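thought: fold this chain, then report.
action: predict
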Amino acid sequence: MSYYGDEDLYPVEEVMGLQRPEASENKDGLQKMQAGVATAISIVLLFVLAYSWMTGQGGNAEPNGGDRNPLVGDIARSTDRASSGLLSGLRDLMPARPPIHLKEDFKGSMDNWLGAPLSAAMARTPNLRELGWNFDNGLVRPGRLRIWQPSIDLSDYKMEFEGTIEKRAMSWTYRSINLDNFYASKIVVRRPGPIPSLEIVRYAMLDGKEGVRSRLPLPMNVMSANSTLFHVETKVRGGQFTTYLNGQLIDTWSDARLKKGGVGFFAEAGEVAAIHWVNVEEERAGLFGRVLSLGFFVGPAVQFGPIL
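observation:
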């Protein structure tokens, strides 16, 4: 049985692949306008911060045991409270640190990918691909679930990766706290062919207990003829999760039970997928965090945060 949510899965523009003809012409102008707005906002914030700091330096003490003019004292105290409130609000807007960007091309050590160790009996199993992870010239074929350790403490982010389905399905997780608590999605090949018939499956795993699996058929135009490469983006924001395949929206749903957690990959019995690379870009709350995450203040080759 299939389960469908109340969300709109296929907006007309996404399903039909429609694009506004003037979009590409306006792209450069829009980027310049965004950069100008971001610069103006940063200047205003700097002036407000400077003013708040200056007004907060001398307004706390009352000379000669108090204000001679009660009205003047009330106004001063009111100004101090307003400045303090404004400064507090600005602190909420400005992130404590830049957003984290993570990259993995599977060409180095896998020490940062955490999973349950194989038992001696599992290690003797002929088909280790069903249980462990297989590496081949910069590709990884997942087995049992492993979680990317540097992403575990993140809350809101975009997970982006590329891979191919070699047999049946490709599976990934997000908001993964540990091996017993995560959200999972997978793209399943229902019927192979030059343009395969696909569906997306997603569910929650809480305290080791799997929730109901929702299965949603995908439109035929998400894959071009004879294409085998899947470019997947999953955006995790608050309790809302949105997934794109090859640039097209294919799923959106919500669940508020897991507040934070990282990303991972896995394969169930009978499934084989090859993952080429994965990136995770943190999205910070607040206006200034979103401005920083857009990268207006750095060159195109510079990134905030550690690159792993």
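thought: worth noting. The chain has five helices and 16 strands.
final: tokens above.
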